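Subject: Predicted fold for Glutaredoxin domain-containing protein, 82 residues

User T.R. writes:
Posting the sequence so we have a shared reference for the thread.
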Amino acid sequence: MTDQRAATLYRMVLPDHTCPFGVRAKAVLEDNDFAVDDRILRTREEVDSFKEEQGVETTPQVFIDGERIGGSEELESYLAGN
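User M.O. replies:
I've generated the structure tokens; pasting them so everyone works from the same file.
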């Protein structure tokens, strides 16, 4: 049995919209045996504040070992190289 690596995922789940890229990123992390700290951004204000704080244009954003990996496509590229 191997130790799980930890990842933090910030993703948008608004009352009228769940970001499909966030769902995809979570599934990719779980499929790659990561323990996911799933941080849900529940309002447009939370999403906008997070993006401003991080200096990013989009959610989701994945962090592994304290390093920002990026969104779901960047995550898949990162995992392909590791």
